[in-house]
Design goal:
- With 394 residues, the protein is α/β, with parallel strands linked by helices.
- It is built from 12 helices and 15 strands.
- A 6-stranded mixed β-sheet has the order 7-8-15-12-13-14, sandwiched between helices. A 4-stranded mixed β-sheet has the order 1-5-3-4, with helices on one face. Strands 9-10-11 form a 3-stranded parallel β-sheet, sandwiched between helices.
- The radius of gyration is 21 Å and the shape is globular.
- The N and C termini lie far apart (73 Å).
- The structure holds pyridoxal-5'-phosphate (PLP).
Length: 394
């Protein structure tokens, strides 16, 4: 007989399964919106058969798992909703929070805002405002929180003393906040292209900052790995750590589905920036599995230019190659800046340069009827220095 056990009562073998296999299971579960096989467990709750499904369901954040005891095999179909799939997204309505970590996760979903200046009776354009996250005021709070939490869990609750990470500011700020909250210390390695403001903010949050003369954050990974080995420090490595991809699958994408349903949106396209590719790869996997016909576009800086937070696909990204993307859109930094200014003047919102790039990309691929969703990764306060230079040039 099938029983429903709380996920914490079921012990999957922690052996890692190939990423492609995991993606295939996640895709199947998300697209059918159901689990069709129970997990087989022994009397101690250890999984005997269905390890991969168990791991995939835990990553997706279901609250319950359908299980049977050894010897039984039953076919079934249980909807994700009935397994507590959406229970993860439980905002606190009156916004009273008992810690800033709770302020982060119980304040999700981040707002989905209709851009009035872009919408008419044929077309609606929506922006998901990741700048409403509390630490770095960016999408990176999600990965800073999740990577840190997962590492602590892996070390049996032991909090690491020193973390080292290559960052273009936002991940560093999120990790510095987590370190501050839990009594650890962050040493952030930043590339040469990061603004003084970014460096100052990291120091303000208590991070030690090491500025490199290399221009891309991803170029620093090798050096940081070396330092981590020498010092015995923890290198979470946002570029390769699957917790990055997983947190966006479990929260960012899932909450966007709830918002889309609430607003009666039929997403025609979702457009977002590519840095590590974490958030857009997860959104692509999730929405391609659950929404027929939705197009996904990734936004990168035009060749030979830089826009803080995003980069060219050929500079090396982990997850984007495992999911279906309909197009990569190149944006020049000037186009991104013009979009930031236009959004401030027409919508009254200040967003970062990669959000400007996403808006500029929408102008290139959007235009038809339907609902377009733009993912705006961060708030614009960090970029006033760059924007100021732009104004000075006239
Ligand atoms: N925009 C900003 C401002 C960022 O900091 C980042 C990541 O560093 C991104 C976009 C890209 O996000 P992801 O790393 O999930 O691809």
């Amino acid at each position: 007989m099938v029983e429903f056990k709380h996920v914490d009562e079921v012990v999957c073998d922690s052996k890692s399964i190939p990423f492609e296999e995991l993606i295939a299971i996640v895709k199947d579960v998300l697209s059918t919106d159901a689990v069709k096989k129970p997990v087989v467990i022994d009397d101690e709750g250890k999984v005997i058969s269905g390890q991969e499904l168990c791991i995939a369901l835990k990553i997706l954040g279901v609250r319950y798992l359908p299980v049977v005891r050894k010897g039984f095999q039953e076919a079934l179909s249980i909807s994700l909703k009935d397994l507590g799939f959406f229970d993860d997204i439980s905002p606190t309505p009156l916004k009273v929070f008992r810690s800033s970590e709770e302020l982060l996760i119980k304040n999700w979903p981040t707002p989905l805002l209709q851009l009035k200046s872009e919408s008419d009776n044929r077309r609606r354009v929506w922006a998901k405002l990741e700048g409403f996250n509390p630490f770095s005021m960016s999408v990176k709070d999600r990965i800073g929180w999740y990577m840190f939490r997962k590492a602590v869990e892996r070390y049996g609750g032991r909090v690491p003393t020193l973390l080292v990470e290559a960052t273009s500011t936002n991940t560093g700020l999120a990790l510095a906040a987590m370190c501050g909250l839990h009594g650890s210390k962050l040493r952030a390695y930043i590339p040469s292209t990061i603004s003084k403001t970014g460096e100052l903010l990291l120091k303000l949050f208590g991070a030690e900052v090491v500025r490199s003369d290399k221009p891309l954050t991803v170029d620093l990974i090798g050096d940081v790995e070396e330092v981590a080995r020498k010092l015995g420090a923890l290198h979470l490595n946002q570029f390769y750590n699957d917790a990055n991809f997983e947190v966006h699958l479990r929260y960012t994408a899932k909450e966007l589905e709830l918002q889309v349903r609430e607003a009666g949106i039929k997403p025609k396209a979702i457009i977002g920036g590519l840095g590590t590719s974490g958030h857009m790869s997860a959104i692509a996997l999730y929405f391609k599995s659950r929404f027929n016909g939705v197009k996904i576009y990734g936004v990168v800086p035009k060749e030979g230019t830089t826009i803080q937070g995003i980069r060219r696909v050929e500079s090396g990204m982990k997850w984007v190659h495992n999911v279906e993307i309909d197009g990569i859109v190149d944006v020049h930094p000037e186009e991104a800046i013009n979009s930031v200014i236009e959004l401030a003047r027409k919508e009254g919102i200040l967003v970062g340069l990669s959000s400007g790039a996403v808006h500029a990309a929408y102008r290139k691929v959007g235009g038809g009827e339907g609902d377009y969703i733009l993912i705006f990764p961060d708030h614009g306060f960090k970029y006033v220095e760059q924007l100021g230079k732009y104004f000075e040039r006239g």
